[in-house]
Amino acid sequence: MSIAREHDLHKRRKSRNVGLGLTLAAFIMIVFGMTMVKVSRGDFDMRPDANSTLVDIETGKPVEATPRVSQQSEAADGN
Amino acid sequence: MTDASFETRPETQDAQFGDYFALLKPRVMTLVVFTAFVGLLAAPVGVHPFLGFCAVLFIALGGGASGALNMWYDSDIDAVMKRTAKRPIPAGKVTRDEALALGLTLSAFAVVFLGLATNWLAGGLLAFTIFFYVVIYTMWLKRLTPQNIVIGGAAGAFPPMIGWAAATGEISTASVLMFCLTFLWTPPHFWALALFVRMDYDNATVPMLTVTHGRRATRTHILVYTILLAAFAIGLGFTQVGGPLYLAVALLLNALFLKGAFDIWRRDEAASEADNFRAEKKFFKLSLLYLFAHFGAILVEAGLSRFGGL
């Protein structure tokens, strides 16, 4: 069977293939969109926030939190 | 593989995309989408619009998946009933294995992605809804008890509760009462239809109340469920999703619905046949408006409170 020639099978399954293609494209868009929203909201931010208390594992006493450094200033330091 | 194997299959049996979509029971999905959307928006916690869209989509997909699994299991009885004989499996367009694969895959996808998009309580509730509809209703009780409509109605009543859980991460009185609204609405809605449409469930050996207990008992059941429904529907107006508009709608529609149920209860078969089931048909039409208007009023109340109205 030639690849270039349109077989009857291609015609018969066109709507199925187009539908599946659009479904997969929609799936990619949804995963991308969800990731963007979650990342921009900071859902995946694992760093302690300003209100949390850090505790020394060995002594069990609270320790002073290291000031949070913004990404911009980190980038500036790198330069 | 040669293409000879494809050509031996008759052209009409090639499943199109629409046939797979039909497995998801799109008409039922519209109710799921609407009530889940209302549950999500009525919640006191705001949701990011895109995540809200995703949540409703995944709830709808979960509902669709349970529809596909229902068609997989019920393909034997679908084939003998006129109403369902054209469904993709009995029509020979989709195989049972394909329906099972689609249903299981979509179920897992919908539950996991709802959990990831919102929270795991919502994901868990969706998983339970699918389990309840497929295992408890379809596989176990549908062919066993004439109360099958009540049990099936419970599965269809979960979406607003899931929508609420997706936004708030919890279950509240308001979300339970929204569940009760659809749950108690389903039996009178369906039994009214069963009174004036001759259904062929007998051929499929599915026990229907009109056959097992008679039409007189069905009329009584409609009245009892409508009284219970009115209490819960009006009670919902005093929760955080209610308000003056919802209460006005609920009072008016429940008064009309109760009158309709009472009319159905007090008449006999001779009276119904004499006017071609006028009261039953009127009640059925009102039931469609009833559910839409109640959830619509909740939606409007949510909009008004969010934008500083009532």
UniProtKB/TrEMBL annotation, chain A:
The name this protein goes by in its record: Cytochrome C oxidase assembly protein
Keywords: Membrane, Transmembrane, Transmembrane helix
Segments traversing the membrane: 20-39
Region Disordered, annotated ranges: 59-79
Composition bias type Polar residues, residue spans: 68-79
Originating organism: Sagittula salina
From TrEMBL, chain B:
Primary subcellular site in the record, as a coarse category: membrane
Membrane association type: Multi-pass membrane protein
Enzymatic reactions: heme b + (2E,6E)-farnesyl diphosphate + H2O = Fe(II)-heme o + diphosphate
Record-level Gene Ontology MF annotations: protoheme IX farnesyltransferase activity
Transmembrane annotation, as ranges: 28-44, 50-73, 94-114, 120-141, 148-167, 173-197, 218-238, 244-262, 283-304
Subcellular localization, as worded in the UniProt entry: Cell membrane
Protein keywords: Cell membrane, Heme biosynthesis, Membrane, Transferase, Transmembrane, Transmembrane helix
GO BP, one annotated term: heme O biosynthetic process
Complex and partners: Interacts with CtaA.
Additional remarks: Carbon 2 of the heme B porphyrin ring is defined according to the Fischer nomenclature.
Entry protein name: Protoheme IX farnesyltransferase
Species whose genome carries this gene: Sagittula salina
